[in-house]
Design goal:
Layout lengths: L8 E2 H24 L3 H16 L4 E4 L3 E7 L2 E6 L3 E4 L5 E6 L3 E4 L3 E4 L5 E12 L2 H6 L4 H19 L16 H16 L4 E13 L1 H40 L7 H16 L16
Antiparallel strand pairs: 1-5, 2-5, 3-4, 3-6, 7-9, 8-9, 9-10
C-alpha cells in the first residue's frame, strides 16, 4: 500500500459556512413552526443537524505531522499540509508524526564472531516517510522499529570480532565508520516495508562482558607491549646499522667481525632495555 496525499476543504471557510448554516436553520425553523410549514420544518431540522455534526470534520495538521484518513475502513489518503482542514465527519483520522526521532537500544549481551561475550548498544535516528505503510503494513511501527533494530544489532555483533587480528580485518572496536554504515543499511532493509527511513545508526556502547573483561584487558595490554617492543627493536636495529656505517665511512675505528658483534650486542642492550643502562669502563681489550 502506497501513500496518497490529499487535501481537505479549508477549515476557516467551513467554519463560516457552518456558523451561517446554524443561524439560518434556527431562524428558518422558527419561521417554519410559526407558519406551520411541515416541509420547511423538516428541511431546517436537516440543515441544523448538518450544522451540528459538521464540526466533527475539523482537523488540525501541525508542522511535520500528517493525518491518515479512513472512511469505513478504506484508506482515502493522507493530509500533510499544515493548517486547519475539514474532511468528512464520518472519517477516522490517525495522527502520524514526520519529525526526526531517535531510539537507543538497551545493552545487549551477545557473542562476537570469535565467540567472546560482549555488551553492545546502538542509537538509531529515524523518521516516517510513508504514512500508509507505517499505519497499515505493521501493527505498531514504533515497536516494529525497536525489535528490528535490536535484531540488526545482534546480527552485526555476531558477524564481526571485537578486535581485529589482521590489519585489513574489520572489527567492532576499530572500524567505527564502516560498522555504522553497515548497521544503518541492515536496519533500513528491515524497516523498508514499514515506511521508515533510517537517517543514521551507530554503536553507543561496546565492551567485553564482565566475566571476561579483566582477561581481555590483560590480553590487550600484552598485545600493546609486544607491538611497542617490535617498534623499539626495529628502531634499535636501524640505529646500530647507522652507527656502524658512520664509523666505517669516517674511518673512526676499524672493527673486525668479533668487535662488531660485541658493539652490536652492547648497543642493542642499551637501546632495547626498559631501564637506564649502567656504563662499565673496560680498561683492557676484547682479546685479554
Amino acid at each position: 500500500m502506497r501513500e496518497k496525499e490529499i487535501k481537505g476543504l479549508s477549515g476557516w471557510l467551513m467554519l463560516i459556512l457552518l456558523v451561517a448554516a446554524l443561524i439560518a436553520s434556527i431562524a428558518g425553523l422558527v419561521w417554519a413552526i410559526q407558519a406551520e410549514n411541515v416541509a420547511g420544518i423538516l428541511v431546517c431540522v436537516f440543515v441544523l443537524l448538518l450544522a451540528l455534526v459538521g464540526p466533527a470534520g475539523f482537523t488540525v495538521v501541525n508542522p511535520n505531522q500528517a493525518k491518515v484518513v479512513q472512511l469505513f475502513g478504506v484508506y482515502k489518503g493522507t493530509i500533510k499540509a499544515q493548517g486547519l482542514w475539514w474532511v468528512n465527519p464520518l472519517t477516522r483520522r490517525r495522527r502520524v508524526t514526520l519529525r526526526i526521532r531517535n531510539f537507543e537500544s538497551s545493552k545487549l549481551k551477545v557473542n562476537d564472531q570469535d565467540g567472546n561475550p560482549i555488551e553492545i548498544a546502538a542509537v538509531v535516528v529515524w523518521r516516517v516517510v510513508e504514512t500508509a505503510e507505517a499505519i497499515f503494513q505493521v501493527d505498531d511501527y514504533e515497536q516494529f522499529l525497536h525489535v528490528q533494530s535490536e535484531s540488526a544489532v545482534r546480527n552485526l555483533a555476531t558477524s564481526y570480532p571485537y578486535d581485529a587480528h589482521r590489519e585489513d580485518q574489520m572489527s567492532l572496536r576499530m572500524s567505527v565508520v564502516d560498522i555504522a554504515h553497515k548497521l544503518r543499511d541492515e536496519i533500513q532493509e528491515r524497516l523498508e516495508k514499514a515506511g521508515i527511513e533510517v537517517i543514521e545508526a551507530r554503536i553507543t556502547h561496546l565492551a567485553y562482558a564482565p566475566e571476561i573483561a579483566s582477561t581481555m584487558l590483560r590480553r590487550q595490554q600484552a598485545n600493546a607491549i609486544i607491538a611497542a617492543r617490535q617498534k623499539i627493536v626495529e628502531g634499535a636495529v636501524g640505529m646500530v646499522e647507522m652507527a656502524l656505517d658512520l664509523l666505517s665511512a669516517k674511518h673512526v675505528v676499524a672493527l673486525d667481525e668479533e668487535r662488531k658483534a660485541s658493539m652490536v650486542s652492547n648497543l642493542l642492550v642499551v637501546l632495547c632495555s626498559d631501564r637506564d643502562a649502567q656504563p662499565i669502563v673496560n680498561a683492557g681489550t676484547l682479546y685479554q
